[in-house]
Amino acid sequence: MKVSSISSFSKTSQVSLPLHLATISAGFPSPAENYVDRKIDLNEELIKHPAATFFVRVEGDSMMNAGINSNDTLIVDRSLEARSGKIVVALVGGEFTVKRLKKENEKIFLVPENPKYSALEITQEMEFSVWGVVTYAIHSL
Amino acid sequence: MPSTLFKGFALVDCNNFYVSCERLFKPHLKKIPSLVLSNNDGCIIARSKEVKALGIPMGAPLFEYRSLIEKHNVHLFSPNFDLYSDMSDRVMSVLYDFSSEMQVYSIDEAFIPITIESEEDFIRLQKKVLKWTGIPVSIGLGPTKTLAKMANYKAKTNPKSFISLMNSKGRDAILETTQVGDIWGVGKKSAEKLKAHGIYNALQLKKAPKEWVKSKLHLPGLRTLLELEGTPCYCSQVKADPQKSLTYSSTFGSPITSFERLRESVVHYTSKAASKLRSKSRLTQMMSLYLKSRNGSFQRSLSLDFPTNSTPTLIEGALKLLSQMYQNQTYKKAGINFWELSGEKEVQLDFRSTDKPVHTQLMKTLDQINSKYGSNTLFYAGEGTSKPWLSKRELLSNQYTTKLSEILKINI
Questions:
Q1: Residue B170 CB coordination number (10 Å)
Q2: Does the global pTM surpass 0.90?
Q3: Distances in Å between the alpha carbon of A95 and those of B26, B220, B412?
Q4: Rounded to a whole number, what is the distance in Å from the CA of A100 to chain B's nearest CA?
Q5: Is-catalytic flag, A86?
Q6: Which terminus of chain A, N or C, has fewer Cβ atoms within 10 Å?
Q7: Residues of B in Cβ contact (< 8 Å) with A51
Q8: Would you write out chain A's pLDDT as a tens digit for each of its 141 residues?
Q9: Is B407's CB within 8 Å of A95's CB?
Q10: CB atoms within 10 A of CB A17
Q11: Coil, strand or helix: which one is A127?
């Protein structure tokens, strides 16, 4: 029988950076210098409602001025309320889109963030729903 | 849970679960008849409302209904167990937020004990699950699990997907419309026995003499009768339909704080569950690890590349889940669940999707030695496994929630 493989346990879901609690003053080392308390966990910071959070990749430039570039990965939270002014993933006629939601005088608009494109008014006959609220856009530089 | 506060159970069940998971990311299929096939694309394992309306039964072989499917443009999916197990975890965690006493029953069902919660609370929960996870659920309430299950069954055809049998008024009318074969806990054989004696519906069963029911259907039959009357007999976690899932769980003799000891227990429980699976000649496609600590209960699932009952493959899965879930806490209980079971014979049709012959032979030898000299004579020390072959699944959708390269893409 083969010897079992020996592997170390590692948590794969965290992105951690140690957070040093002691301030470093010149000259004298702090007694707490080596004490590292909590680690920064990006999952904890960026994802408040894991059960309701999904990732989406976008292609296109209609939301450029909101800081969303083509090929960005968006963090989408379905638990949040779709308030006016929020950037949302929406469904129009069964098709996905990402736009800023605007509610004005009982009218609903999906507004792009690029002068090349015009806003879309959501009328009664249109099949419309909000799929989730975009909380973060991620792109490498 | 104080017994004075206990009022009954809610059974929360996802509507057309696998199809609903697929439709969340393909909303244009919302009204299109859709179904999900089994691992080798041979049988139908999930159907949308529209497919049910076409009269296509659950478990039917695909080829038998090819022409009907083509005629109505039914959309086919290969089973995306990675997606389904992740979506199940999401639904369960929303339910757990609502009540820490919730009991997972299957991949898409859970019982929630009712104490101080009102009907409105459950209606709000139904809306929350849909908003947070995108999965529509039906909820049935009842003073017992059997009645909660019955209420849930009726809720499936209710416009609000919500039925309460908490009030005894009007309950008998519902019992009368429920056939004995559809009562939770009454299997085919029991249903035939009852029908042979003129008992066709739940109301007739409820009114039948208790001694007679006990003599014909024994203790489980009597318990079902009592539950139909409103007397709870099943309060703690119950094991789900052994045809559809298998569980091995146990409270630790003494609470575990070290990772090594927890790892040992998980390996042990997985071995036990795997040999149970083999003894029933069944294979599993999805598994969950359940851990209960002083801080709460946690469950996490994953899917396997192909149906298996091989201990090393299943241990590998269990340890992967453990490494994702483990936190420095004191653990009281662990459990392994296998969902989406299939028969050994069904899978042999596609040689690519079975375990390597050496695994099967090894398993046979392992089981023989253990049955001759006592179980645990031979046990696993965490053997590594070779990469499994991929199964046939040609109509597979993306792993939208478990693979960054396969997330939903939107043109904006």
A1: 10
A2: no
A3: 9, 50, 11
A4: 11
A5: no
A6: C
A7: 89-91, 93-94, 97, 132-133
A8: 544 444 444 444 444 444 444 444 455 555 555 555 678 889 999 999 999 999 999 999 999 999 999 999 999 999 999 999 999 999 999 999 999 999 999 999 999 999 999 999 999 999 999 999 999 999 998
A9: no
A10: 9
A11: coil
